[in-house]
Amino acid sequence: MEVTKQVYAVKIPFKLAVGSGKTLDRFVYAYLIYGRKICLVDSGVSSSYRVLSDYVKQTGRDARDINRLVLTHAHPDHMGGARTVQKETGCQIAAHSMDKPWIEDVDLQYRERPILNLYSLVEGSVKVDQILKDGDKLELGEGLTLRIIHTPGHSKGSISLVLEPTGLLFSADAIPMRGAVPIYDDVLSSIDSIRKLMQVKGLTTLLASWDEPRHGEQVYSLMEQGLLHFQQVHDLVRRIRAGSPDADLTAFASQVLHAMNLPQTALIPIVIRSLEAHLRVADREDLLGEA
Ligand SMILES: [Zn+2]
User: Fold this and answer.
1) In contact, 63 and 34? CB cutoff 8 Å
2) How many CB atoms lie within 10 A of CB 97?
3) 249-259 vs 218-243: helix axis angle to the nearest 10?
4) Strands, sheet with 214-215, edge to edge from the N-terminal-most edge strand
5) Do you find a cis peptide bond into 165, omega within 30 degrees of 0?
6) Signed CA dihedral, 25, 259, 182, 178: sign only
7) Are strands 130-132 and 214-215 parallel, antiparallel or unpaired?
8) Ligand 1 centroid – CA 199 distance (Å)
9) What's this model's pTM, rounded to 2 decimal places?
10) Is 161:152 a contact under the CB 8 Å cutoff?
11) How far apart are CA 90 and CA 84, in angstroms?
12) Which H helix or E strand runs over 54?
C-alpha cells in the first residue's frame, strides 16, 4: 500500500500458535522508505523476503537496493525474516541495544519470552550491525531523515521512528488499540513512551505494525486511546485480583480475558506476562495520574 511516494506499507499475515494445535491469525506491517537507497522498517516473519521483494518490484525498484533494515524490536514478527533480507541484499541491520541480545540469540529470546512456534516464525538469529539510541538520526538521502525515539514498554528496546520532514511516525507495537490483547512487558514504561510520542509535534500519519495508516487528528487521538486502554486493563486486573486473591496466575488471566471479551485462545505466556506487569503495580489505582 502506498502511504506516500516515498513510503510503502506491506501487510504480512502469519499464524501464532496458542497450544493444542490451535493458531491465531495475526498480521504485521513492514514499511519501505525510498530514499537514495531503500530503508526497510522490520522484516516480518520467516520467508517474508519474497513478499517484500515482489512488492518492491511492483513499485519499479529492486529489493537489492535495501541497504538498511531497522528493527523496531526483537519480536519474531518483526525480525523473523531478517536473515534472508540480509543475505539477499547485504543490508546493515540496526536496532536498539536493549533488544540486541534477543535479536542476536533467538534461543535466549525463546527461553525468556516463550512463543510456541517461535522457530517457525523466525529464520534465525542475526547480528546487529548498528546500535540505535534515542535521538539518533539516520540520513536516508532525498531529503529524508529518520529520527529514533526509544519507546520501551512493549519490549525494553522498542523504538519508534519519525520520518522527517514528512511527520510520519512508525510506532511499531508501542501504542495498543482499544480492547486489544495485552502484549507488553512494562505497563508504566509503555505509558511513558506514549506520552513521549505525544510530545512530538507535527505528526501527520501513524504507521503502527498492527493497523492500517491513520492520518490527521487520529494520530494523537489513537495515542490517547492507547493510554486509556492501559488504564482499562489495569482496572480489570485490580478488580479481578481483589475478587479472587488466591486464584493462580492462569485462572486470574483467564478471568481478565473473559472480562475484556477476548477469546481464551489468547491465554498464552506473553499475555499472562503482560497482566503480571499490571499486578506489579496493582497498588496504584490510577496509572495515568501522578505516581
Ligand atoms: Zn512486538
Assistant:
1) no
2) 13
3) 130
4) 137-141, 144-150, 159-164, 168-172, 205-208, 214-215
5) yes
6) positive
7) unpaired
8) 23
9) 0.96
10) no
11) 9
12) helix 48-58
The three cell numbers locating residue 179: 480492547
> What does each C-alpha distance from 56 to 9, 22, 35, 50, 213 come to in angstroms?
11, 33, 13, 10, 19
**Cα–Cα distance between 184 and 182 in angstroms, integer?**
6
CB neighbours of 94 closer than 8 A, spacing ≥ 6? 68, 69, 70, 71, 128, 129, 130, 131, 132, 138
Query: How many angstroms is it from 189 CA to the middle of ligand 1?
Result: 15
| 194, 226 Cβ separation under 8 angstroms | yes
Do 95 and 71 form a contact (C-beta atoms < 8 A)?
yes
- 286: amino acid identity, one letter: D
Average pLDDT, the chain: 96
pLDDT in tens, 197-216: 999 999 999 999 999 999 99
Q: At residue 257, what is the residue type? A: L
Distance 154 CA to ligand 1 centre (A): 6
pLDDT higher at 21 or 281:
281
Q: What is the whole-number distance in angstroms between the Cα of residue 25 and the centre of ligand 1?
A: 15
> Cell numbers 531523515 label which residue?
145
